[in-house]
């Protein structure tokens, strides 16, 4: 049976190579649609008691995951010239598409009583905007006396906070990173111009940092794993051809990994980002093993066709069984209720 199988593969080798080539092109095309996960990974199943309670709590009370905070602590901000620049900076933030509102010192609103209409109104504390240092100092004293904003927008130690609410629909889309880049760009411009250090916080910023780290680490780990593997292969075999063939095979499989993620509508998470370098680590030993045995067979037989046939007959079935065992091990992860592990197991098992 093995003899017939090896002969079948060699007889129709052009057909099989063409199928693999076309399938790789298809997977490469699908890879462009793969997306990164901008949310924190859910590491507990939906059936978990605490997770059920958490979802019920969000359904009733909502969540504040769309608030981006920018803080600073510098006495320069209370200089009338710098404070005027700070006000322009706040206005620039408000003009960015996707920003619902900005709460800051220059647009601080206070509750006032309307005796005539028997109602309460919101009034901007800094309207009209101060033009002298003495006017600003007086308004800053009033700001610090507002108990509602105490230790939130400004505190007794001179720390100032700016709160930005972002459109939830943008936060749940790939446009989030572009918006965060714009906010940081405008903030950095103000920081450099006035020599004031800004500090960023909030869930939108944390998600942005995670998404960027996943992108960079995916590329770094993949490059490092391929580079180290190539160096080791060259040290052992002293041949560029011997290095090129395994790396080519691994590159094809890595393309299939991204294509599989896209076809299954899975997003790249911190865990699935490890798949490409993991494929390199798992796949290279198989390539080296078969390549080494091929060179051994080439010395034994007169032609390459016979050498390849001998490799398939001798270690083809063994390699298939070991890889199926590895795939089954990954598929075990797919039986868990944890989404990230489930996706990781399915994609790793398929590839």
UniProtKB/TrEMBL annotation:
GO terms for cellular component: plasma membrane. This is SSD domain-containing protein. It is found in: Cell membrane. It holds the Pfam family MMPL. It is a multi-pass membrane protein. Keywords: Cell membrane, Membrane, Transmembrane, Transmembrane helix. Residues 247-351 form the SSD domain. The chain crosses the membrane at residues 12-29, 218-237, 243-264, 271-291, 311-334. The keyword Lipoprotein does not apply. PROSITE patterns: SSD. Its main location: membrane.
